[in-house]
Design brief:
Shape: globular
Distance between the termini: 20 Å
CATH class: Alpha Beta
Number of domains: 1
Structural class: alpha/beta
Strand content: 25-35%
Oligomer: single chain
CATH architecture: 3-Layer(aba) Sandwich
Radius of gyration: 12 Å
Strand order of the largest sheet: 1-2-3-5-7
Length: about 100
Amino acid sequence: MSSSAHWLISQLRGKREMKVIDVNCFEMYYDNKKMIIYCPTTDEYEITSAIIYKAKNTNAVILAYPHQWCRATSSAISLGKSLGIDVIPFGRFFDLYG
């Protein structure tokens, strides 16, 4: 499991029902709706269009990333939005879903 996914899951444990899907993804339920969350690996320190397509292939609706060592390009954020994927830093993720 990626370190960012592991950290995010550990922070949500006990607050949300979750299931690990693969190294970068987990399912989470929020308001009785299943959501797939994609978290980058350390090799994916810059969220680009290629990473957005990887997230799309997992059916992710959110790509959450740690802003301390990762950043998202504006084109990746726009592409994500057009594909129905919210690209947000962990802090915003916790504001919305934590």
